[in-house]
Amino acid sequence: MQEALSREQWDVIISDYSMPGFTGIKALEILKATGLDIPFIIVSGKIDEETAVEAMKKGAVDYISKNNLARLIPAVEREIKDCEIRKKQKKMHSELIESEERFRLAFNNANIGMCLVDLKGNFTKVNQKLCEILGYSKEELEGFNTRDFTYERDKSTGPEFIKNALEGKSSNIVFEKRYINKNGDTVWAEVSSSIVKDEKGSPLYFISQIKDITKKKNTEEALRKSEENYRLIVDNTSDLIFRIDMNGNFIFMSKSVEEHTGYTDHEIVGKNIKDFLPPRSYADATRRIKQRLDGVEKLPKYEVDVVSKDGKSITFELNTSPIYVDEKIESILIVARDVSERKESEEKIKNRLLFEETIATISKRFTKIEDLNQSINLSLNELGEISKADRVYIFKFNEDMTKIDNTHEWCRNGVSPQIEYLKGISADAFPWWMEKINNSRIILVKDVAKLPPEASSEKETLESWGVKSFLVVPIYVKTRLYGFVGFDNMFEHVSWEKEDIDIITLFSEILGSAFERNKMLHELKESEENYRTIVEGQTEFIARILPDGTHIFANDALCKYLGLKKEEIIGKKITDIKNGPDTPEEDMKKLLEHFASFNEENPIKSIENRFIFQNGEVRWAEWKDKAVFDENGNIIEFQSIGRDVTDKKMMNEEINLLYNAIEQAPTIVVITDKQGNIEYVNPKFIEITGYDLPEALGKSLRMLKTGFLPKEHFEALWKSISSGKIWKGEFYNRKKDGTTYWESASISPVKNSIGEITHFIKVSEDITYKKLAEKDIQEKEETLRGILSATPIGINLMQERSIVWCNYYMKEITGYSEQELVGRNTKLLYVNEEEYQRFGDLYREKFEGPLRFETQWITKDKRVIDVLILLNPLNSYDLSKGYITIVSDITKSKKSQKQLDENLEYFAHLVDQIRNPLAIMSGFVQVETENEKLKERLLRQIDRIEELVKQLDQGWMDTEDTRRFLKRYI
Length: 970
Fold this sequence. Notes:
By secondary structure, this protein is of the alpha+beta class.
């Protein structure tokens, strides 16, 4: 029975319960030991019902009595049908497990945040990347609502989409929002969310991809900031920034240069470019400098290879811009980008595409197999040429899995073939290897010398063959292990990329399919789908174009960028694509010339072109194009890989603008390392201090100290900036010639991506003349204040009828001290409300110039005094600026005036009483007096009295003559 079961496949087993030398129960045990799922039916006419039940418990599917054989055929049909159903269910279950495992791996290992969210917005599953973005563990996130971690202003976007999705209005959305991470920081994210539905279209949950775009947002913000932020960008950008003079000597380098090349500014600044460039690159650089001098404004980017300080070769992409001073090129700004990783990535993509194309070719080859061995050898040859391996081989197991044979082999030049010696090898000689292969494990060993102790046998054998690292993938035919395909590295230790392992795994599946034709079509289709998934999953734009300009392929990224569907691109020529962005005529001309310039010597070229979108937006794309030739050297298609470089171009232009602004700024700009040693000064520093660039670089700012400011001043400065704060203050510095100057400065710390302070930036201006002017004004102010305080008259500075300042004499007038008056409303000085309001009405009704009025005040000791106030505004056009009042105490003069008025009234009456007798006396003397001398004398005295009377009448009573006259005659 065991032999029969291993030899053929059976649909059902029918057994008598009792047979000579054998029993149905024994047969049932043999079947169960094989693990095969074959219905087992017992037929007997002797056993009782209890024995039949026991047999059923041990695995029999039915019991048929020989007295009722009519049940046998329906039972057989039923069990065969049930067995088929079970097989399908197992297959579906296995496929489901594999699908779930693939999804789990993709979900957990994704390099962007991913999460599953229930219909109420609660996290049900999150991946590690999302935990890193938000700073929480999976346990802290799962079960909580997304709103719990969402920035307050952004909480409306998610619920609105959930509502629309549940109502069937939308199925996916891409938007930006902010989260608050565990540290309380704001994290910007680009969220792509889709609703997942069951077979009936009922919503199940949401799946979201969350990409951390905080850095992008910060960069956009940084581009809008002033020169201070510009320097942050320059020193923290990964791009390398140089400035060279017209002789090719370096005069400036950004901090990123040291990070990429290992050279410090001291090792580069002042040196010539020929000291760091190979001859060919140096010749090209000097040619470009000459072109700049000849007036060529725009030059294309180009790449150079530079050897770093540690001997590593680095590829840089250079962009140059002239810097003008007085309309003459003074220097050249170089922005270099380390494109080694990009080129490596492009090379990986290129190799991967080549790998994929090779696999596709192999897949196609195996669809029509005429000579299996020839096809396998050709495929191994192709894979070996494009892979990292030095030997590629296939081993096959014998039927009982005890022996393995090397059936096919490819070796790189210089590697000895081993196929002749590797026949009939015992599988027991490689227990560690076999255990992994039997468990469907891929074996990837980066260093044979580091194999675990349990692999000592394998280690000894592989080292004897000179193998340093290897990759082995099992080959299956259906579910049976057939053998394995291996890739050995003999000269260096190699670590394979996951994508490459996936492709090799695909190759092993194709090989398995070659031995089982029924699975070949399925494997080929899966291969094509994997290829398309890889290409469609790229964020770069990928297109394939025929020599006449017709598109034959465009990936999703390109369609999304152009805002077109695939059918609007594929089948259309470059010049005939409609409804998309316009390509300017000059760019289209360059593009056509670009494609016409390919040949076998130059099969790969790059170009940039513009797109003008319907909303007026202009965007730039950079393309890397490869021409594919047939065996006759004719181009059969172009393969294009592109990416959007608009932001990079804008950033470069902004950096150039800001750099020129700093170089020509009217303020001093100095950059130091975190110890305070100078790494950059702008021309204004040289102009003010007298130190030229070589004298300043590497020196400490302490060289400018005069010792005038106290030590505590500088200790407070360093404490502030070392803690990450911005310090503002003044310095009293010494120039190179010994003269001193004052400067007003702001010092800001510069931090790297992990928050460490790497540099300090000082922006300052010379305020020497300002300080002298302030001192002069202060001295004049103090003099004026002393004069005003000593003036024996009240003086006030008023604003909104409140005293802002007053002199000392106001105390003499009012009895209140300066402290009691300043800040108080003048209402407290007036004798009553009516008098206070009268002045206010007078001030508001007519105020074209100085205002003079009299009023009464009440002093601190409750005396009523008469005051004369003279008021004048500080600004006749803006009374809110206040006014000056001059106050005089006229109480005594008012009393004197009153007495004077009373005296004048009395003297007027007296004059009238005197004038009448004088007139009589004058007439009598002239008529009656005969003595001329006496007459003349009397008349003269009468005239004197008349003159005094006139003076009295005019108010001149305080005269010596008046006093003598009054004393004599009154």
